[in-house]
Amino acid sequence: MEYKNSAAHIYDIQGYAVHDGPGIRTTVYTKGCPLRCLWCHSPESQSYDFELGYLPIKCLGTELCQNACVNACPEGAISADEPIKALDGSGMIQKAKIDRAKCTGCLKCAEACMPKALYASGRDTTVDEVYDRVIKDRGFFQNGGGITISGGEAMAQFGFTLNLAKRLKDGGIHICLDTTGFAPAEAFEEILPYVDLFLYDIKHMDSDTHKKLTGVPNELILENARFLAGRGGALQIRVPVIPKLTDSETNLRRTAEFCASLGEAVKLVQLLPYHKTGRMKYDRLGWRYKLTNVEPPDDAFMLKTLEMFQNTGLNCQLY
User: Fold this and answer.
1) Distances (CA, A) of 46 to 116, 139, 173, 226
2) Which of 78, 159, 194, 223 is deepest in the core (most CB within 10 A)?
3) Nearest CA-CA partner of 296 in 28, 27, 41
4) pLDDT single digits (tens) 202-233
5) Residue 289 carries which DSSP code?
6) Domain 7-49+123-318 -> CATH class
7) CATH number of 52-120
């Protein structure tokens, strides 16, 4: 099958993924997303550009590294922090400290950082490079496994996503596309023949509320879901259950009814309870996490919601 060796920015490739579609999968995470969900657990995926991340626990101290990161920064954004005790008990060390107001994202400090405490939140790649990496996992793709192209929003780098899907399809690999649905219908129509299953998010049924929570309205998302269902696409719909934001009975009932209206195209609905595991990523990027007062929904509520969805005839499970 003819394809182009398109370039892209990605931030990770994870093997042995068991939550990104059926079976054991390898997931390719692209950078860039048009949405800004308040609960986003992958903030490093939002920008197409690479950003400076920092893991202080990996920092060996600026003195040991001869101030490599401090000297590499042309803006003076990196300095030595206050002395603290080294974890190995060897004495006092001064870890790197970032002045985010001065940082321009040139990433020269990350290039100089020997232990990679300072790092770029992504890397350049191509279709061929990704294919050569993921095909090594093919032996694990049994019982319906395969490759999932995710993000960010994988459709935001459409040329790369389309051509990677083409090459994978030519190799007989089962392909999932993880998407918010916020992309032109023409793009979904073009990629549809190469995708076996769309992992499709339905975040909120009210468009105004959807815009407040994610930064974009939902009309295009709902229309694309109907479009894919009407054109023979297979959908695994995922519904985030976020206390105080998406968990009203009205919204969840409307979501269940919408999913049911798509008919046999919907193979599975997954209810995704809010979790806190992404919060630490915000610290690494120097961002403020906005949902500090939100706690995960309790089991009783999730089971009640599951029953609501199942009562519409949907094949539904808790994530």
Assistant:
1) 22, 32, 27, 26
2) 78
3) 41
4) 999 999 999 999 999 999 999 999 999 999 99
5) P
6) alpha beta
7) 3.30.70.20
